Amino acid sequence: MKRVFLFSDGSSLGNPGPGGYCAILRYKDTEKVISGGEPHTTNNRMELRAVIEGLKALKEPCIVEIYSDSNYVVQAINQWLAGWVRKNFKNVKNPDLWKEFVEVAKPHRIKAIWVKGHAGHEENERCDKIAKQMAQMQKA
């Protein structure tokens, strides 16, 4: 299996408000940037949307290391998700996105790694900048 790095970030201007997301996929020397936005959303939804869209762009099963500055996303993937699935996402926020994540994650071996936001992590800073640009575009 190929080892792929997925760097992600989400942003919303207001919570809820216009939002944007960005994922950078890296395999060896190849990089792909995926971004988008929604007119009315939350920061957590955009953080998760970035990961989902990054995973959707993979064309074959991979070992995926997800780097995110979102404790919500990292802890959910690494710790909470199995329990949420068992209870069918009862009382879980954003169940639609978490169900989508479960589906797009199935073919992959995934590990999520937390990185401190706004601390000079190159890919996180790039994702943050693009996610904010995408959120700004939703205001128009």
Describe the structure.
This protein has a single domain (about 1-140), classed as Nucleotidyltransferase, domain 5, CATH 3.30.420.10. The chain is built from four helices and five strands; from the N terminus they run βββαβααβα. With about 140 residues, it is an alpha/beta fold. The longest helix is centred in the C-terminal third of the chain and has 18 residues, at about 120-140. The chain starts with a strand and ends with a helix. The protein is globular and about 40 Å long. About 35% of the residues are buried. The chain has a five-stranded mixed beta sheet.
Please outline the helices and strands:
Layout: E1 2-12, E2 17-27, E3 30-41, H1 43-56, E4 62-68, H2 71-86, H3 95-105, E5 109-114, H4 122-139
Parallel strand pairs: 1-4, 4-5
Antiparallel strand pairs: 1-2, 2-3
Helix pairs in contact: 1-3
Q: Which term fits the overall shape?
A: globular
In CATH terms, what is the architecture?
2-Layer Sandwich
Q: Gap between N and C termini, in Å?
A: 42 Å
DSSP E strands, number: 5
Query: How many DSSP H or I helices?
Result: 4
Under the CATH scheme, which class?
Alpha Beta
Determine the strand fraction and express it as a percent band: 25-35%
Helix content percent band: 40-55%
Strand and helix order: EEEHEHHEH
**CATH fold naming:** Nucleotidyltransferase, domain 5
Provide a quick synopsis of the model:
The chain is of the alpha/beta class. It has helices at residues 43-56, 71-86, 95-105, 122-139; strands spanning 2-12, 17-27, 30-41, 62-68, 109-114. The protein has one domain (2-139): Ribonuclease H-like superfamily/Ribonuclease H (Nucleotidyltransferase, domain 5).
